[in-house]
Write a structure and sequence with these properties.
The protein is of the alpha+beta class. An eight-stranded antiparallel sheet has the order 1-6-7-8-2-3-4-5, with helices on both faces. Strands 19-20-23-24-22-21 form a six-stranded antiparallel beta barrel. A three-stranded antiparallel sheet has the order 11-12-13, with no helix packed on it. The chain is globular, with a radius of gyration of 29 Å. 28% of the residues are buried. Residues 248-260 have a biased composition (Basic residues). It holds the Pfam family PH_8.
Length: 729
C-alpha cells in the first residue's frame, strides 16, 4: 500500500483508535494487549533461544491444564509433551508468534496467543518464570515481525490466507509508523495548517482505506472458493453407497464416538416409536434420488465417478440405501408472484400460505472505523451499534426459535422408556442451535425493558410468551406450555472479546417438565463463539458440554452428557456433537452423534437411526438474513391479531418493522428514538427510587424467573386493549 504524506495524519489516527479500542476490551479484565512492531528497523538483535516447561490449557472437550515443554526460537514457538520428544521431532504444535495476537494477564500469570484459527492459553508456575517468558516472547515477536516486514514481496505472501492477512497488517502498521515518524519532525504550525487544508483529503483517505479492506476481503473469499473448488474436483464423487458385498477400505470409520462408546449398547434399537426406523433399509427407486451428503462419511463405501448420462447410474431394487426417517412431511417450495408477501407451499398435497419477508437484506456496508473512532474508552458491549448490523428479529423471538422442533417433546411424551425419552429431550436441546448456523452475519435487536412477545401455534400445540425482565444486566425470560409439557428459562450472557472473535457464555438453567410422567429435566447451554468480528466472513460455532439431568419424585432416573466439539484447524469436525445416555448407575444405555446444524443419530454406524433432522431452508434464505421458515413467520402481524396483543409486543416495534421492510434510514432513526425513551424511563425510576417490576414473570426461590400465570388470563379477560402499559416506542 502506498500512503500519501498529506493523508498520513488520518491514517495514523485510524490505526491508533483501532488499537485503543481493542486494548480497552482487554483492560476491562486486566488483560494487557502486547503491541505489534512499530516501524522497520535493521538492528533488532537476534533473540536467544528460550525453552522450558509451562502449563497449557486443554482443548475442548477436555478440561484443566497439562504440562508441555516449549521451545522459542526465531519467533517460532513449538511444544511437545517432554523435552526429549521435542528433540526427536515429536511435536504437539507450532505457533508463529509474529503472526499471533498476544495478551498477558499478570495477576494470574497467563499468556494468550491468538492465531485466528485457535487460541492458545498458557500459564507459568512462578512470577519469575512468567516475566522471563513474557520478555522473551516480546523480543522474539518483534524480531519475527521485523523479519517478515523486511522480506521481499514475493516471499511475504504465503498460501495461507490467515498468514497473508496478518503479514499485510504488519506491513501497513510499519508503513504508518514510518509516516508518523516523518510527521513528528515537522513544525506544529505547518501540521495545523495542513490539517485544515486537507480535511477533505483525509475523509477521502478513510474511504480509500475502506475500499482497500473490502478488496482484501474479496481476495480472501476468492482464495477460499478456489480451495473449495480444488477439493471438489480432486475428490471422487460418492454417488452410491453399498452396504453389502463391498469390502471395507483401509480407511477406518470417522471417529464420532466418545470414550464410552466402547461399551456394548444392546438396547439402542429397543422401544423405538412407529415414526422411527433404522436408516439401512430397502427403499423404492423414487426415494433414492437424494442421499444426505453428510452421512456419506459415516459409512465405508465404494466410490464411483459416473457421468449423469451413464447407464450405470440406474440402480436395481436390490441395493440398500440410506433414508432419512425423521422427515414426516414432504415440503416443496414454489414461487407465486401474485401471492406477495406470501409464498405458496405444498405440504402433503395441501396448498397453504405462509408469511414471507417483504424485503431482502439491504447490502449497505458499515464503516467499523467510524464506530470505533466515536466510542473510545467505552464498553463495546454497551455501545449502540448501527441498525445495518441487525436482523429484523428480537432476542425474545430468538428464544421462541428454540421450540421450533417441539414435536420432539410430543414424541417423548408418547415414549414409555425413560431412557428413550431422554434421547428425544437431548435431540430437542441440540435442535435449538440449528437456526444459528446461517445467522452469524447479523445480531438480533436488544429488547427494551418491559418488552414482550407471544407466539400462539395451534398447529404445533403450544403457546409461548417472553419478556425482558431486566436491562442491566440484560435478562430475557420465556415460558412455553402445551398439554404435554411445560418449558421455561431465563437467559443472560457473559461476553469475552478476544480481538478477532467474541465468546458468548450463557448463564442460567433451562427447565422442562412432562406432567404425564412426573419428569423434570434441567440443562445449561454451551459456549458460542462468533469469529471474524471486525473483518472477514463471520461464522459461528458452539462448544462445550451440555449435561441434561432427569429426575422424578422418586429421584434421579437417567442422565445425558452431550459434547459440542470445537472445530479443529481446517474446519475438521465442524458442528459435530456426540453424547451418551446413562442410567442412575452410570451404565451407558444409548449413544448419540451428529451435527447440531444438520441431524442427530442414535446408535453406532452403520446401523443407526435418525432421531432429528433440521428442516429444509427456504430457497432464497441467503437474501433474507439466513432465516429459517419458522423464523420468517415469527414477526407476522395479522390484522385480526393486532387488538389481542399488548402494546409492548415486539411486533409493534417500529425500528424492527422498518428494517424488515428495507427502510434502513427510517429504522436507524426509530432505533435512536426508542433508546432515548428507555434512558429517560430509567432516569425517572432512579430519581424516584423505584425499580422496574416485570408484568408477566416473577422471581422464584432459586433466583430464576418464572411465569406468574397471568398472561393468557388477562389476554382473554379483560383484554390487553383495556389495560395500561408503559410507552416503549
Amino acid at each position: 500500500f502506498q500512503v500519501k504524506s498529506e493523508n498520513a495524519t488520518r491514517v495514523t489516527q485510524l490505526v491508533f483508535l483501532y488499537m485503543l479500542c481493542i486494548k480497552s476490551a482487554f483492560t476491562s479484565d486486566s488483560w494487557e494487549l502486547v503491541e505489534d512492531l512499530r516501524g522497520l528497523t535493521g538492528n533488532i538483535q537476534k533473540p536467544v533461544k528460550q525453552e522450558g516447561l509451562m502449563l497449557k490449557k486443554r482443548k475442548w472437550p477436555m478440561k484443566g491444564w497439562h504440562k508441555r515443554y516449549f521451545l522459542l526460537e526465531r519467533g517460532i514457538l513449538t511444544y511437545a509433551k517432554t523435552g526429549n520428544d521435542l528433540k526427536k521431532g515429536r511435536l504437539r504444535g507450532r505457533i508463529d508468534v509474529g503472526l499471533s495476537v498476544m495478551a498477558v494477564k499478570k495477576k494470574s500469570l497467563c499468556i494468550d496467543l491468538d492465531t485466528e484459527d485457535s487460541i492458545y492459553h498458557l500459564k507459568a508456575k512462578t512470577r519469575d518464570l512468567f516475566e522471563q517468558w513474557v520478555t522473551e516472547l516480546r523480543h522474539h515477536r518483534m524480531f519475527r515481525q521485523n523479519e517478515i516486514a523486511m522480506e521481499p514481496p514475493e516471499r511475504q505472501l504465503q498460501s495461507d490466507p490467515t498468514s497473508n492477512r496478518r503479514v499485510l497488517t504488519l506491513l501497513i502498521q510499519s508503513s504508518i509508523t514510518s509516516v508518523r515518524s516523518f510527521i513528528s519532525k515537522q513544525p506544529s504550525a505547518l501540521l495545523k495548517n495542513n490539517f485544515r487544508q486537507n480535511s477533505q483529503d483525509m475523509e477521502k483517505c478513510c474511504k480509500d482505506l475502506s475500499e482497500c479492506e473490502s478488496g482484501l476481503l474479496e481476495l480472501n473469499l476468492l482464495l477460499k472458493n478456489m480451495e473449495v473448488l480444488h477439493r471438489t474436483f480432486s475428490a471422487p464423487a460418492i454417488n452410491l453407497l453399498q452396504t453389502e458385498g463391498s469390502k471395507k477400505e483401509k480407511r477406518g470409520h470417522k471417529k464420532w464416538r466418545s470414550k464410552n462408546y466402547s461399551k456394548e449398547n444392546k438396547s439402542t434399537q429397543q422401544d423405538l416409536p412407529d415414526g422411527s426406523r433404522p436408516l439401512l433399509q430397502q427403499v423404492s427407486s423414487e426415494s433414492r434420488g437424494s442421499i444426505p451428503e453428510s452421512l456419506s462419511e459415516f459409512f465405508d463405501a465404494k466410490e464411483y465417478l459416473l457421468s449423469g448420462s451413464s447407464s450405470e447410474n440406474e440402480v436395481s431394487d436390490d441395493d440398500s440405501y440410506i433414508s432419512d426417517v425423521s422427515d414426516s412431511m414432504s415440503v416443496e417450495y414454489c414461487r407465486n408472484e401474485n401471492a406477495s408477501p406470501f409464498f405458496t407451499t405444498i405440504v402433503n398435497g395441501l396448498c397453504v400460505f405462509l408469511y414471507r419477508l417483504p424485503s431482502s437484506r439491504m447490502n449497505e456496508s458499515v464503516n467499523l472505523w467510524s464506530i470505533l473512532r466515536s466510542n473510545i474508552g467505552k464498553d463495546l458491549s454497551k455501545v449502540a451499534m448501527p441498525v445495518q448490523l441487525n436482523e429484523p428479529l428480537n432476542t425474545l423471538q430468538r428464544l421462541c426459535e428454540e421450540v421450533e422442533y417441539s414435536h420432539l417433546l410430543d414424541t417423548a411424551v408418547n415414549t414409555h422408556d425413560p431412557h428413550m425419552r431422554m434421547v428425544y429431550i437431548a435431540a430437542f436441546a441440540i435442535s435449538a442451535y440449528a437456526c444459528s448456523f446461517t445467522r452469524a452475519g447479523g445480531k438480533p435487536f436488544n429488547p427494551i425493558l418491559g418488552e414482550t412477545y407471544e407466539c400462539l401455534r395451534p398447529d404445533k400445540g403450544f403457546r409461548f410468551i417472553a419478556e425482558q425482565v431486566s436491562h442491566h444486566p440484560p435478562v430475557s425470560a420465556c415460558h412455553c406450555e402445551s398439554k404435554n409439557y411445560t418449558f421455561w428459562q431465563d437467559v443472560r450472557w457473559k461476553n469475552k472479546f478476544w480481538g478477532k472473535s467474541m465468546e458468548i457464555v450463557p448463564m442460567g438453567v433451562t427447565h422442562l417438565e412432562l406432567p404425564g410422567f412426573g419428569d423434570r429435566y434441567e440443562w445449561s447451554k454451551v459456549t458460542s463463539c462468533i469469529h471474524n468480528i471486525l473483518s472477514g466472513q463471520r461464522w459461528i460455532e458452539h462448544y462445550g458440554e451440555m449435561s441434561i439431568k432427569h429426575s422424578t419424585t422418586m429421584g434421579d432416573v437417567s442422565h445425558c452428557k452431550v459434547t459440542f466439539l470445537k472445530s479443529r484447524s481446517g474446519g475438521l469436525n465442524a458442528n459435530e456433537v456426540e453424547g451418551v445416555v446413562t442410567d442412575s448407575h452410570g451404565r451407558v444405555i444409548h449413544s448419540l452423534f451428529g451435527k447440531w446444524s444438520e441431524a442427530l443419530y442414535l446408535g453406532k454406524p452403520p446401523s443407526v437411526t435418525c432421531i432429528w433432522r433440521a428442516n429444509p431452508m427456504p430457497e432464497d434464505h441467503e437474501q433474507y438474513y439466513g432465516f429459517t421458515q419458522f423464523a420468517v413467520e415469527l414477526n407476522e402481524l395479522e390484522e385480526g391479531l393486532k387488538p389481542l396483543l399488548p402494546l409492548t409486543d415486539t411486533r409493534f416495534r417500529p425500528d424492527q418493522r422498518l428494517l424488515e421492510e428495507g427502510d434502513i434510514a427510517g429504522a436507524e432513526e426509530q432505533k435512536e428514538r426508542i433508546e432515548v425513551l428507555q434512558r429517560e424511563r430509567r432516569r425517572v425510576l432512579q430519581e424516584n427510587s423505584m425499580t422496574h417490576s416485570p408484568r408477566f414473570f416473577k422471581r422464584a426461590e432459586d433466583d430464576s424467573w418464572v411465569s406468574n400465570g397471568t398472561y393468557w388470563d388477562l389476554r382473554k379477560d379483560p383484554g390487553f386493549s383495556k389495560l395500561e402499559f408503559p410507552v416503549l416506542w
